[in-house]
């Protein structure tokens, strides 16, 4: 069976979940052993293609194309010794640059979420419903995020310190399933699947 874009639905979901479990286990071990991960800041400082190819090979990752690739990216906080975020993108390197360089809260969404979380804690808004009742308040935080480089960079710099690894996916269903499953399995603090 296929969808309107002629993408096949995954068969044997239990086998897929077993495969995800194995991949997650290897990823967690690699972060702990520093074998197949790189600090985000170090990866994004790579300028030329050959150097990027070399550095990606050092962490055991060889994308089919060097320009851009589709898949999952996993952020690991070395201070907490824990996976804190799982994301997916059709253009992984571009997406990473958005997380740490953009000033738009919609593209630098993780940094903006971190800023909102800190503001909420300072205000004593400890329940999820507090965040949504105080919608008007977020306009100030959003404007501050966009307009104040100093405010924005304190969160983006935290992200740059995270370690990262990648999983390339060609199948969109598998990629989407992996993001949700890995975030739940790893109890990734910054993942939320609340819809708009």
Task: Describe the model.
There is one protein chain. Helix 1 packs across helix 9, helix 5 crosses helix 7 and helix 5 crosses helix 8. The model has no long low-confidence stretch (mean pLDDT 84). By secondary structure, the protein is of the alpha+beta class. It has a domain of 121 residues. The chain is globular. Helix content is 55%, strand content 12%. It contains 9 helices and 4 strands; from the N terminus they run αβααββαααααβα. It has a 4-stranded antiparallel sheet with strand order 1-4-2-3.
Overall outline: globular
Distance between the termini: 29 Å
Number of helical stretches of at least 4 residues? 9
Oligomer: single chain
Report helical residue fraction: 40-55%
How many E strands?
4
Physical arrangement of strands within the biggest beta sheet: 1-4-2-3
Low-pLDDT segments, ≥5 res: none
Q: Biggest sheet, in brief?
A: 4 strands, antiparallel
What structural category characterises the helix and strand content? alpha+beta
Mean pLDDT: 84
The succession of helices and strands, N to C, reads: HEHHEEHHHHHEH
**How much of the sequence is in beta strands?**
5-15%
**Rg, Å, rounded:** 18 Å
Quick gist of this model?
The protein has 196 residues and is an alpha+beta fold. It has 9 helices and 4 strands, in the order H-E-H-H-E-E-H-H-H-H-H-E-H.
Key traits:
196 residues, alpha+beta, four-stranded antiparallel sheet, 9 helices
Topology, element by element:
Layout: H1 13-33, E1 38-39, H2 40-44, H3 49-58, E2 71-77, E3 82-89, H4 92-101, H5 109-123, H6 128-133, H7 135-147, H8 149-161, E4 163-168, H9 172-185
Antiparallel strand pairs: 1-4, 2-3, 2-4
Helix pairs in contact: 1-9, 5-7, 5-8
């Amino acid at each position: 069976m296929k969808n309107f874009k002629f993408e096949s639905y995954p068969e044997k979901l239990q086998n897929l979940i077993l495969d995800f479990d194995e991949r997650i286990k290897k990823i967690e071990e690699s972060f702990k052993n520093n074998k197949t991960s790189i600090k985000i800041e170090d990866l994004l400082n790579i300028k030329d293609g050959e150097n990027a190819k070399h550095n990606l090979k050092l962490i055991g990752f060889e994308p089919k194309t060097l320009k851009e690739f589709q898949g999952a990216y996993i952020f690991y906080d070395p201070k907490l010794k824990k996976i804190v975020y799982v994301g997916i993108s059709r253009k992984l390197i571009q997406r990473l640059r958005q997380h740490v360089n953009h000033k738009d809260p919609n593209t630098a969404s993780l940094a903006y979420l971190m800023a909102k979380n800190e503001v909420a804690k300072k205000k004593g808004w400890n329940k999820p419903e507090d965040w949504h009742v105080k919608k008007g308040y977020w306009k100030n935080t959003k404007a501050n995020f966009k307009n104040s480089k100093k405010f924005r960079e304190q969160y983006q710099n935290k992200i740059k310190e995270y370690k990262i690894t990648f999983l390339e996916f060609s199948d969109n269903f598998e990629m989407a399933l992996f993001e949700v499953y890995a975030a739940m399995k790893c109890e990734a603090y910054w993942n939320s699947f609340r819809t708009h």
